[in-house]
C-alpha cells in the first residue's frame, strides 16, 4: 500500500496523539531543545545532487554523536490509524514507518523510538541533544549505507504535531526521527512534547 493512500488517516490522528508513544517517566527529563517557531526548518547545508535509491527497508540506525546503534524494525498503523511503535519491552529498537518512503528514496523516511521504558533510557533518550551538522547513518536491507546530516532538532507540543513537515512532500531524500520529550505529565503518563530531528541525505 502506498504512503499516499495510508498517510491522511495516520497524520490526522498523529496531530492529536503525537505518535501515541507509551513512555514511563524517569527522575531525569530527556533532553529538550527550545520550543520552536511554527515555520519549517531550513536546511543547514545544500542537498547534494544524489540519485534516489531504490526502495529497501532500513535495518540499522547509527548516530555516533549520541551513541545510538540500534536495530530498525518496520511498523505500521493500528486499526484506529495511530502510528505504531516498537514494543515497550524492547526499548532498544527503532521503528520505520513502512507505508512511507524508505531512507534514500525521494521524500521523508520516518523512524520512531521510545525515549524511556520501565528499565531506563530507551533508544532515542538523547535525541534532543543532536545538533545541526551531525550525522545519522542508515544501513538498508540491500546492504547500502546512506548518511543523513541533521538540519535541525525541534520540540513540538503533541497537540500541534507538524504532520506536513514530517510526512509532507520533499524534493530530496529526507529523514525524520521522532520520540517523546519535554515535561512528563504524571496524570496522563506521557510526555507533553515530541522531539523531531530533521535531516537530509548527504551520501
Describe the structure concisely.
By secondary structure, the chain is mostly beta strands.
Q: How does the SSE layout of this entry go?
A:
Elements (H helix, E strand, L loop, with lengths): L2 H15 L40 E6 L4 E8 L18 E4 L9 E6 L3 E2 L2 E2 L13 E6 L4 E13 L5 H5 L5 E13 L4 E12 L2
Parallel strand pairs: 2-3, 4-9
Antiparallel strand pairs: 1-2, 1-7, 3-4, 5-6, 7-8, 8-10, 9-10
Extract low-pLDDT stretches: 1-28
Q: What's the N-to-C terminus distance? A: 28 Å
CATH architecture: Beta Barrel
Shape type: globular
Main sheet record: 8 strands, mixed, barrel
Number of strands: 10
Mean pLDDT: 83
CATH topological fold name: Sortase, Chain: A
Class, according to the CATH hierarchy? Mainly Beta
The number of helical segments is 2
User: Strand fraction band?
Assistant: 35-45%
Indicate how many domains the architecture comprises. 1
State the secondary-structure class: mainly beta
Helix content: under 10%
Radius of gyration: 15 Å
Walk me through what this model shows:
- It is a single chain.
- The chain has a single domain (3-27, 50-201), classed as Beta Barrel (Sortase, Chain: A).
- The chain is 10% helix and 35% strand.
- It is built from 2 helices and 10 strands.
- It has helices spanning 3-17, 163-167, and strands spanning 58-63, 68-75, 94-97, 107-112, 116-117, 120-121, 135-140, 145-157, 173-185, 190-201.
- The longest helix has 15 residues, at 3-17.
- The chain starts with a helix and ends with a strand.
Amino acid at each position: 500500500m502506498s504512503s499516499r493512500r495510508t498517510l491522511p488517516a495516520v497524520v490526522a490522528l498523529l496531530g492529536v496523539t503525537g505518535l501515541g508513544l507509551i513512555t514511563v517517566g524517569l527522575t531525569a527529563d530527556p533532553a529538550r531543545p527550545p520550543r520552536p517557531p511554527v515555520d519549517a526548518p531550513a536546511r543547514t547545508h545544500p542537498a547534494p545532487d544524489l540519485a534516489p535509491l531504490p526502495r529497501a527497508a532500513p535495518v540499522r540506525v547509527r548516530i555516533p554523536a549520541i551513541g545510538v546503534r540500534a536495530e530498525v524494525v518496520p511498523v505500521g498503523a493500528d486499526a484506529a490509524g495511530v502510528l505504531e511503535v516498537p514494543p515497550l519491552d524492547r526499548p532498544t529498537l527503532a521503528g520505520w514507518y513502512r507505508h512511507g518512503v524508505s531512507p534514500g528514496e525521494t521524500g521523508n523516511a520516518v523512524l520512531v523510538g521510545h525515549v524511556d521504558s520501565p528499565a531506563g533510557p530507551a533508544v532515542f533518550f538523547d535525541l534532543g541533544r543532536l545538533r545541526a551538522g551531525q550525522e545519522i547513518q542508515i544501513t538498508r536491507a540491500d546492504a547500502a549505507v546512506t548518511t543523513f546530516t541533521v538540519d535541525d532538532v525541534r520540540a513540538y507540543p503533541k497537540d500541534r504535531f507538524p504532520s506536513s513537515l514530517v510526512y509532507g512532500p520533499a524534493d530530496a531524500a529526507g529523514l525524520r526521527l521522532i520520540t517523546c520529550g519535554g515535561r512528563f505529565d504524571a496524570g496522563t503518563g506521557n510526555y507533553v512534547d515530541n522531539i523531531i530531528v530533521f535531516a537530509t541525505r548527504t551520501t
